[in-house]
Fold this sequence. Notes:
Strand order of the largest sheet of chain A: 4-3-10-12
CATH class of the largest domain in chain A: Alpha Beta
CATH architecture of the largest domain in chain A: 3-Layer(aba) Sandwich
CATH superfamily of the largest domain in chain A: HUPs
Number of domains of chain A: 3
CATH topology of the largest domain in chain A: Rossmann fold
Distance between the termini of chain A: 49 Å
Oligomer: homodimer
Shape of chain A: globular
Number of helices of chain A: 15
Number of strands of chain A: 16
Helix content of chain A: 40-55%
Amino acid sequence: MSFSLHDSALGRQVDLVPLVTGKISVYCCGLTVQAAPHLGHIRKEVVFDVLRRWLTFSGLEVTLVVNVTDIDDKILAKAAAEGRPWFAHAYFYERQLHRATAALGCLPPTYEPRATGHIPEQLELVQELIARGHAYPAADHSGDVYFDVRSWPGYGQLSHQRIADMEPALDADPRGKRDPHDFALWKAAKPDDPATASWASPWGRGRPGWHLECSAMAGKYLGDAFDLHGGGLDLKFPHHENERAQSQAAGRPFAHPWMHNAFVTDPSGEKMSKSLANGMLVSEVVRRFDPRAVRYYLVAPHYRSMVEFSDQAVATAAAGLARLDAFVDRASARLGAVRPWTMGEAPAPQALPAGFARAMDDDLGAPAAIAQLHDSARAGNRALDAGDDPTALTALVQVQNMLSVLGLWKLDPAWPAAGGDLEPVVDGLVSALLEQRQAARARRDFAAADQLRDRLTALGLTIEDAPDGPRWKR
Amino acid sequence: MSFSLHDSALGRQVDLVPLVTGKISVYCCGLTVQAAPHLGHIRKEVVFDVLRRWLTFSGLEVTLVVNVTDIDDKILAKAAAEGRPWFAHAYFYERQLHRATAALGCLPPTYEPRATGHIPEQLELVQELIARGHAYPAADHSGDVYFDVRSWPGYGQLSHQRIADMEPALDADPRGKRDPHDFALWKAAKPDDPATASWASPWGRGRPGWHLECSAMAGKYLGDAFDLHGGGLDLKFPHHENERAQSQAAGRPFAHPWMHNAFVTDPSGEKMSKSLANGMLVSEVVRRFDPRAVRYYLVAPHYRSMVEFSDQAVATAAAGLARLDAFVDRASARLGAVRPWTMGEAPAPQALPAGFARAMDDDLGAPAAIAQLHDSARAGNRALDAGDDPTALTALVQVQNMLSVLGLWKLDPAWPAAGGDLEPVVDGLVSALLEQRQAARARRDFAAADQLRDRLTALGLTIEDAPDGPRWKR
């Protein structure tokens, strides 16, 4: 284990040293399920899916917890506008999120807790912070509870800011606050909130603040101290700063290092705008492009680099992936199919070129890793040209393993419809069965012949006669 | 609205009269996510998906809440045996459940709350029951809290039993109970329970009893009174009897009527046995058969009739569905494709034959509804034979709408990747060919057997023996 990564808290690269030998616990801030996910949302899911695959390949047992924020002002407002309950709105988009991540070949996390499912754990944390002098109920008796940022000397360390330079927290009426930067741990219910959207607390009915959710869920499922906290760069401040402050002020070591991925930008370099995002819904993008090409487009740049979205960029990615696939197809046809490493298996020796492992161990260096992938494919093609089968086979094994680590192997179990290229296999199997049926008829075993016809029907296949022989249709 | 159904509480058919005009609220007991779902589990999901589609088609706004029981003794024991956290175990099978229901064309429910996400609501209910004299902490100070069945005159009304005739509740040490039939509302944590599997309560750390979960979640999301409570027949006693007693003893009207679906049995008429269930995992069955045929097999019998599972029964269902599809294909080819009603749209006039609507309104009478479906297809085929296009078009529209109401239309949005994934087809074709090979050997035609093996090899497939039968690999 020699994996190192850029720790956004320290601002430099550090070795990832597991707290428990052989295991890595990762908490990754998930989505607020208020709208259909676009590529900007889902880049994080892909980045952390690659991290998880790489650490697993490296022999670690990875626990990945990704929360679902299922209540907030936006969810309440949108649900009210649609005339459906907030929980139905949130659940609808939670399922859309699952569909989007599955469409891009991401494995489900180890666990995916919902914020509203952890009210007791959140109330305990608020009470602990009040007891320690780091939180206080709002002075105006509104029922809010705030974190006292001035009481915690570490506040600002994650995002490297002095309190005076920070944006004030706009999450509540400032009249009840000691300092405008104090943020809400608990938010009193508003008169027009639905009854299901608040819970009893020592300060009256209310709901948890956003930042509190993650502190409580990370603590519950990964423990007071865990290995790595991740999320999108836009969450570094205030969300992660506040999460870290809450947890550490409550006496929990929490996570280090922190890992933040950059955005998907529009061509002007802006964080994805609303208007552009509409054309970048995952559901739309995977209709227009091969989902594996979309994943390649998201995987190939360094996770800390901004990625600009354009159809051209995805098309370029698709061409890169096609070159790799072409080598795999060519080599498999000559040397026989090889099944690469997949999640849950022990990696085989000689499974990867050193350059790829070195790149991945160096802060998930995807650009160098992808360069190695193409080098290996080119070397494999040259070996095939030269009739050097042993060299070509090594390249085939390694290229497939690299693709698998990146979640790009075309038959990876995480791809929902692995087997778009199964059509020729179905062709072959159907003609073999039809020959069997002919043979059964020839020996006057009509029961067997009928049974074969029924099998095809049961599989949803219909057979049609065509000039060049029978054709199947679904 | 003239829908009536068999109320299992009253033991007779009643009209379903919405509490709020135009809306229907349904709570349906979901799965304990401890293992991969088999057809016996999933029949309920299919039955209530049809109910929801039919009520929606009838112009009602349906809210369907289906819980996930994500903690219980089995989950804790299995997770411990596997060496993974209980929440990871539960979440893994929650996702398997989603995959199984999606594979059978079921729409996600309106909401799917998890039991462990509702501790405050459950504690409130226990306290209300204690305050009203219907519950008490265990006399042996174990930390359990029990429902006092003798204190509630309605206990036994749902399952039509006298307390003296009931099985005692085996959920705790009987020494702390007033009556052996008293059941646990709250279960004290055991010394070897993981810390994450218990919550603070006035009676010490513990977790909710199974029955309590559903009372609390139904009350939260559907209100103190709602329209319909459903579930599998095996839940009628004790689960639903206890749920109803808890809620009503706490002053909540709860649901009426109650709707219970029958089991999928093995050929001996037993509720699906463990050994048989292994061959009936949804993931396996949809590999061996067209998933639409599997749904047809589950949908066609009356929901209150036991369904016997056999390959032959599914094959017969597949043949029935194929006849309907053949009419749709033939009529579409002649008259042009017609898009049927789907969920979320207003039904068109003349959309269904009266016989189908009558059958569905009469306690979801699937056998009569399916008979009408085939009558319409036959009439449509006759009209096509006779060149009577207007009659054939009416039949096409109506047949497709009937298929859509039953969730069987082949392009229904609930079907995943309609047509993309060929793996299940390859599975089915390979097993058919392997059977041919066996049969060739049995009749000592070894040349034919070898030839079949060579065909598979030539297609790049290798066959491996697995405990549940041969598997192919590329």
